[in-house]
Design goal:
- This protein is α/β, with parallel strands linked by helices.
- It is built from 4 helices and 4 strands.
- Strands 1, 2, 3 and 4 form a 4-stranded parallel sheet that branches.
- Helix 3 links the parallel strand 2 and strand 3.
- It starts with 6 loop residues before the first strand and ends with a helix.
Length: 118
Amino acid sequence: MLESADGVVFGSPVYFGGVSSQMKAFMDRTRYLRRKGALKDKVGGAIAVGASRNGGQETTIQMIHNFFFIQEMIVVSDAKTAHYGGTGWSGDAKEDEYGSETARNLGLHVAEVAKKLV
């Protein structure tokens, strides 16, 4: 499925300043895609959710971005608020309007860039 996508959004909760073990295992298992260049020039965006507003979201997003860079993908931000990507906190998601806005902006930006490349 990744190979057929024009763009992807990866998300992870923040676990001690990084991605969850499940996300890390997923990224590690895509090594064969790197050898094939299967994700080259696809658009990628990242979302992270921390326990507080400043709960390690940016370092978690950087880990996802590093994965995208190694795969030779095109990395985009949420554009409008100049963040690395979508940054939420794990309180009530309905109350986190700012985090929801950054995630929505990120998805729109991934789609916009991917559309231009197709």
